[in-house]
Each structure stands twice: as C-alpha cells, then as structure tokens.
C-alpha cells in the first residue's frame, strides 16, 4: 500500500537518562495526514487478562545501562513517567535480570532481585501510575551471550541449553543441568511474584533475540537429547515451564506477556518456524502454560511472515492462539536500525498501513521503541493528531543511549 503524505516536522527531542534536551531544528519531512483516524484507532482500550490498557500504544523494552549496581534510580522513574504522562498505554521496561547469577553481563543494567533493586523498581511503578500509565517489567536471562568474567557476578559461568553460542560454536560456559533449569525457572517465578508485590501491572518474559529462553527454542543452539531438546514442541518445554511457574506465582488475573522473535542478534535470517503449522506448534504450549499475550518482535512490522499471506508475525500469532498480540518493528521509522545506527538518519514513517492492520484486528497493540526513545511526547502527538510536531529519528543524536 502506498504511503499518503502531508507536511511535517518541528523539534527533535532526545530522551536522555537524566533529562530531555532539545536539539536543533531538522529539515521538514512528510507523513500521512490521517490524524483523526489515528486518534480513533489507537485510543481504543484493550484488555490483557485482568488489566485494561487505555490505548493501543506500547513502549518497547530498550536496554539503557543507567542503573549502577543494578538499582533503578529517580532518573529511571522520571524517564518512564514522562512517557506515561504523554499517553503511552503500556510501558514494558528495559530488560531486567532475574535472580540467577549467570543472568546478565553488566552492573549498569537493572536487576529484578535484591532489596535495593526492588525498592527502586517500586518507585518506578509508583511514578508511572501517578502519571496515569501502566507498566510491566521485562524479565531477562541472557544465557550463552554472557562472556567469562563479566559483571555483575564475575565468577558465574554462562549457561545455555547446549553450551553453544549463537554462531554454533562452544562458549565459555556450560550445558545446563536439571538443577540449573530448576534454578532459572524459580528465578523467573520469584521475579514475577515480586513484580506483583511491589505494584507492577504484569510481567513480560524475554524469549526473543537469541537470549536464554530463545536459545532453547531455536534448533541452532539447542542440541539437547533429553526432554528439553529435539523437535520444536520439545524445545518449548523450558519456556512453557517458566510460563507455568510464573502463572502459579502470581494472581490469576495478573497478565503474563511473552516476547519472542524469529531473528537473533547474530543471525538475522534465523527461523524458529518455517510455516504457520510450525509456529502453531511453538505457541500452543506457551498459551496453555499461562501466557496471556504475545509480543512478536520483527525488524519491520509491515513485512509478511509466510508466503501466501499478508499477515505479519503478530498477525499469525493472534490467528493461531486467539491471544492478544503486540506488533513491533521500526514503527515510526523508515528503515531498520542497522542503517540508522550507521549514521543514516531515518525520516518519520507514515502509519496508514499500521492503522489498516489495527482496524482489521490483525493484531491488538503496537510497540514503539526508538521513536519513543527519541521523542518522549510521541504518543501524545499521535493521539492528539499533532503529526506536524513529530521528530524524525536520528540515531546520532542519541549518543550512548541504547
């Protein structure tokens, strides 16, 4: 479908860790003028289990590394609260390490365990709620992405389904034993219970992009011969056990989201499922285990997932499971993040095609990442029809913020 264009833009806003600083004016760009339609379609509420989200806009999780000691401070609370106040319906936090020593690789990425860390997160949730928003933490274990000696626990070995890195070579860690599996499952369940206790509105399990859960799902990294390896259904066992343990640790109406992707950080052409039938085999055990909604991560939301259908990955996910689905992938941008981070600025991308898909219920919600990172007011501008104030994404202006 061709993009319909009109006039635009104004001020670039850079969402920094401690404040929002305003950047110089940028050249005018073009965008669809469907202001009334966008406001109508995106402002509809949606239910995720027991949670009512006031509109269809989700803030996608984006790693920032501004939490020394794994403790989110007042600047982190302000960062999320600004976006909630500007109309984001649901915030998914940056990835947070669960309480397993091998879960991470940085002492500046927040953790979702420990008294000081959880006290910091409680203040984040409080700030977002005070601003009128909803928020869920993304719970994360990086698995074999971890390298030997990395913080926050330098002596902890990397762990994974078969001790393999994403390129298929042996890593510096180890294949997980049953005790390792049980410990990680318990860590996710404990983190979810803590999230509910300190006031969050749900949780998201990070099962995408080549991290631990995804390493079990993908045949390229899962070479196990026990019950956790083999065919696609067997490879879902670890993820399904995490989801079931989380479900048991929280209230029945507490939403559990599951983020997954076909692609990996070092394998962009990787596939978990080559067909709708294989995707159904992957998703069915997760839905049965207690996942309430799926966050289907793609690099470009407008690309069809399988031949013979225009449905994207989120569209197929909803069709196959009947569960609410969130789409994500270059929303508000033109081009993928590889080109953007190479210094080639990306103009604001029109959203008529996105609105068409939402209107036909191909998926339920839209996650926005870099556009919201760059401009905290993005949701308010779109919901209010103030397209003329949208700022074109410019990776160079973000500095070290990721």
From TrEMBL:
Which lineage?
A: Bacteria, Bacillati, Actinomycetota, Actinomycetes, Kitasatosporales
Per its UniProt record, what InterPro entries does this chain match? Aldolase_TIM, NADH_flavin_oxidoreductase, OxRdtase_FMN_N
Question: Which one of the record's GO molecular function terms can you name?
Answer: oxidoreductase activity
Please indicate if the UniProt record lists Transcription as a keyword. no
Q: Which residues form the NADH:flavin oxidoreductase/NADH oxidase N-terminal domain?
A: 44-386
The organism's place on the tree of life at top rank: Bacteria
Q: Does the keyword ATP-binding apply?
A: no
Keywords assigned: Flavoprotein, Oxidoreductase
Protein name (record): NADH:flavin oxidoreductase
CDD domains from the UniProt entry: OYE_like_5_FMN
């Amino acid at each position: 479908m061709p993009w319909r264009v009109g006039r635009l833009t104004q001020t670039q806003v850079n969402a920094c860790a401690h404040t929002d600083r305003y950047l110089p004016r940028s050249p005018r760009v073009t965008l669809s003028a469907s202001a009334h339609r966008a406001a109508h379609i995106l402002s509809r509420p949606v239910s995720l289990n027991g949670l009512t989200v006031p509109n269809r806009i989700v803030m996608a999780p984006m790693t920032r590394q501004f939490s020394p000691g794994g403790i989110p401070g007042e600047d982190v609370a302000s960062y999320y609260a600004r976006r909630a106040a500007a109309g984001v319906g649901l915030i998914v936090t940056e990835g947070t390490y669960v309480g397993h020593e091998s879960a991470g690789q940085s002492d500046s990425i927040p953790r979702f365990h420990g008294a000081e860390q959880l006290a910091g997160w409680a203040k984040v949730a409080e700030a977002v709620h005070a601003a009128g928003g909803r928020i869920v933490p993304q719970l994360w274990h990086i698995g074999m992405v971890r390298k030997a000696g990395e913080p926050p626990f330098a002596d902890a070995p990397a762990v994974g389904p078969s001790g393999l890195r994403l390129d298929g070579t042996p890593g510096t860690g180890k294949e997980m034993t049953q005790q390792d599996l049980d410990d990680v499952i318990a860590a996710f369940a404990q983190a979810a219970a803590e999230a509910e206790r300190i006031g969050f509105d749900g949780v998201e399990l990070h099962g995408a992009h080549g991290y631990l859960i995804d390493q079990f799902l993908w045949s390229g990294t899962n070479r196990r011969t026990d019950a956790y390896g083999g065919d696609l259904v067997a490879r879902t066992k670890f993820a399904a056990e995490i989801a079931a343990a989380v479900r048991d640790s929280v209230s029945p109406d507490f939403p559990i989201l599951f983020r997954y992707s076909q692609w990996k950080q070092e394998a962009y052409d990787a596939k978990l499922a080559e067909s709708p039938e294989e995707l159904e085999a992957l998703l069915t055990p997760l839905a049965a285990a207690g996942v309430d909604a799926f966050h289907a991560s793609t690099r470009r939301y407008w690309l069809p997932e399988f031949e013979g259908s225009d449905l994207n990955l989120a569209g197929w996910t909803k069709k196959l499971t009947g569960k609410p689905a969130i789409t994500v992938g270059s929303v508000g941008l033109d081009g993928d993040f590889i080109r953007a981070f190479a210094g080639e600025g990306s103009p604001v991308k029109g959203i008529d095609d996105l609105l068409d898909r939402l209107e036909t219920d191909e998926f339920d919600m839209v996650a926005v990442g870099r556009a919201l990172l760059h401009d905290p007011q993005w949701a308010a501008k779109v919901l209010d029809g103030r397209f003329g104030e949208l700022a074109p994404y410019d990776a160079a202006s973000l500095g070290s913020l990721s």
